[in-house]
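The protein record filed here.
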Amino acid sequence: MGRNLDNAAIAVLVPLPSVLFYLSFLSSYHASVSHDTSLSPLWSWCVDHPFLLANVLFFFNVNVFFWLISHVQESHWMISLYWTVIPVLLVYYYAMYPLAQYNYWRSRIVIIITLVWSMRLSHSYFRREKWQWGAREDWRFSDLRRRYGKRWWWISFFAVYVSQQVYLLGLSLPLYIIHLVDKPLNIWDFIAIVVCVVGIVIAYFADTQLHAFVTKNKKLKELGKPLVAILNSGFWYYSRHPNYVGEQLWWWGLVIFAWNLGHGWTFIGALINSLCLAYVTWLVEQRMLREKCRAEAYRLYQKTTSVWIPWFKPSAIARKDKDN
């Protein structure tokens, strides 16, 4: 209980350096405008370089600060939680920026769906962790810790934190563009909204189905009964990784917003994330194949079920599943 409360306090307090710095910057800027005075060189640089400032804050507050805390706690749990929070902080950061220009309704819509996305992902995280703060770190980080041994203390800075800066700032580029260009809403905005919302819905139900499957197997194990080898129902009947599909739809939906505003180049962040997720997909599947109790069933699942894009099984397989 004590550790859980300590981790909760750390998670709440850890973004404060960036938040307080940004609020000080905004206060100084508005004070200079009100009194018609010049800004200090530091604040002037901040006004002129919003995206660079976001990277600087991320580097010191997340890369350095989170990394130092991880060595004290011997766990990198916090970066997993903050995947759900940082995009929310960024969308407000860009919306509040002194020189921001944007369509009011587009901004509010994107802020709302970003909050919904964050709540969905946060709920999935805490449900998986049994509502504990920092109970464990991502299994991929634990594997890397074992692989690199004594070198992990410095490799983790780049593998866990610097890499996350590239992903999160790159993925969130559309949030920057949305608050950089003032253009009336059009049909492409509504298409982007639909893609984002569909992605959130698919990810939510896929995660819920996976959680129910894992919970059921835990109960079967406690009763000494055979485990269910694979999840092959709901969204998981049509795709081996529907939760990843939903998450990708969310990020590519944001790209549509930016593309509609004349900045289609922002697709690079979503593309890099998709390529990285392809590698993570391979890691997850290799992990499944190493488990003797489900390796054979999972090989069959691989042969009959689409890896990402939901699709129907071969007719013979579908009839067999229906009969079972």
Summary: The mean pLDDT is 92. The CA atoms of residues 54 and 314 lie 48 Å apart. DSSP finds 15 helices and no strands in the chain.
